[in-house]
Amino acid sequence: MTPINLFTDIPENLDTEVFQSLLQGDNLKIERIISKGHTSPVKGWYQQEQHEWVVVLKGEARLLFEDGREVHLLPGDHINIPTQCRHKVSWTLPDFETIWLAVHYT
After folding, report:
1. I want to staple 34 with a disulfide (CB 3.0 to 4.6 A). Which of 4, 8, 18, 98 is the partner?
2. Residue 75: which CATH number?
C-alpha cells in the first residue's frame, strides 16, 4: 500500500469545489473537500441522511445553520452535524484553498 497525502494533488483550476471520496463502506464515507471561495447555493440547505463530522485541515470556513447560528472553522477545528440538520457553507477563503475532511456515518 502507498500512503496518500491530503495536501497534494490539489487541482490548479478550482472553478468548482472538489469532492474526492477516500474511503466508502456500508455506513461510512470519508471524503476530502477542496474549496476556494466556494459557498453553498443561496437557496436551499444541506439536509443529509447521515451524520457528518467535518474538520478543516487547511484554510478557513464558516458554516451557517438554519437557526441562524454561524460557526467559523480554523485549521484543526471540527464539528459534528447530526442527520437532517439543515446547514450550508456560508464562506471559505477566496484566495487560498480550504481543505476539509468529511466523515459521513450512520
Report:
1. 18
2. 2.60.120.10
What is the C-alpha to C-alpha distance for residues 90 and 92, in angstroms, rounded to an integer?
Answer: 7
pTM, entire model:
0.93
Paired with 99 in beta bridges are 34, 58
Q: What is the mean pLDDT of the chain?
A: 96
Task: Encode pLDDT of 60-104 as tens digits.
Answer: 999 999 999 999 999 999 999 999 999 999 999 999 999 999 999
Cα(103)–Cα(50) distance, rounded to whole angstroms?
9
Count of domains for the chain = 1
- Pseudo-torsion of CA 61, 86, 16, 2, nearest 10°? 70
Evaluate whether residue 43 is within a structural domain. Answer: yes
